[in-house]
Amino acid sequence: MTTSSKCPACGAAASGKFCSRCGASLGGGSCSGCGSELPKGVKFCPGCGAPASGAPVARGGRTDRTPWIIAAVATVGLLAALLIMVSRSSSGRSPEAQGAPAAEALAAGGLPDLNAMSPRERFDRLYNRVMRAAEGGDPSTVSNFGPMALQAYDMLPEADRDADARYHAAMIYLHSGGAAQAVALADTISAQVPTHLFGFVIRGTAAKLANDKAALATQYAGYLKNYDAEMNVGRQEYSEHPAILESFREEARAAGG
C-alpha cells in the first residue's frame, strides 16, 4: 500500500518517489546520471545537475550550437562558390566588353601581335585600324585606338618620321579632335618641302572641320597650283594615297580654286 505524504518542496499531497505536482524527490534515492544519493525533496542532483526524475537537460542552460555552426559554414561556402562563378563569367567576356587595353583587343581580334612588329609596322597597322573605323563611322574604335596609334608614332625613330608617317599621324589627330597637332605636323612637312601636297591636304581638312572657309580656300588654291609639278616628282608617299590626293583635287576644283 502506498503511503501518502506532503511534498517537502511545494507542500502538496504526494506519494511515491516524486511529487506529481512539482517533480521533487520524495524519498531520496540515487541519481540516474551519476549514481549519487539524492537528498529528500531535491529536483536536481547536487553532484551532476541531472534532474531528479532522470530526464536529460542541457548543461549550463545552453543549447547545442553545432547545427548553427554547420549551417553558417555551409552558407559562407555557397557565397564563395557564387563569387567564383561570377568572376569566371566576367573573365569569359571579350576584352573590349571589359574595357581592356586596345592592344589586347587587337590581339583578340585575330590580328598579328603588335609586339612582334617593328615600330613602323606597328604604327602603320594602328593607323589603318583607326582610318577604317573613321570611314566606317565607328567613333568608339577611333577613341580606343587613336591614342595608341599616336603613342606608336612618338616611339618611331627620327629616320622613320618621314612625310608619310607625319601625314598618318596628322590624320589620326584630325579624327581624334587634335586639329592643332595635325596642323603642326603639316607645318613640319611644308618646312622641308613647301610645295608638298600633304601639307595642303592636312591644313585643308582641318579648315573643313573648323568650317573656316577662307583658310580652306587658301589650301585649295595652293594645292591646285602645285599639284602637277609635285605629281611629276614621283614621291613614294603619293603613290600610297592616290585616292586621297585625287579626292582633294576634285574638291578644290569644285570649290573654284
Task: Walk me through this protein's architecture.
The chain has 257 residues and is mostly helical. The chain has 2 domains: 55 residues, no CATH class; 153 residues, Tetratricopeptide repeat domain (Serine Threonine Protein Phosphatase 5, Tetratricopeptide repeat), CATH 1.25.40.10. Helix content is 56%, strand content 2%. A two-stranded antiparallel ribbon has the order 1-2. A hairpin with a 6-residue loop joins β1 and β2. The protein is rod-shaped and about 135 Å long.
Stretches where pLDDT is under 50 for at least 5 consecutive residues are 54-63, 82-110
| β-sheet strand percentage | under 5%
H and E string: EEHHHHHHHHHH
Counting DSSP H or I runs of 4 or more residues, the number of helices is 10
What is the helical fraction, as a range of percent? 55-70%
In total, the number of domains comes to 2
Distance between the termini: 137 Å
Strand order of the largest sheet: 1-2
Q: Which superfamily, in CATH terms, is the homologous superfamily of the largest domain?
A: Tetratricopeptide repeat domain
User: What is Rg?
Assistant: 46 Å
| CATH A-level architecture of the largest domain | Alpha Horseshoe
Main sheet properties: 2 strands, antiparallel
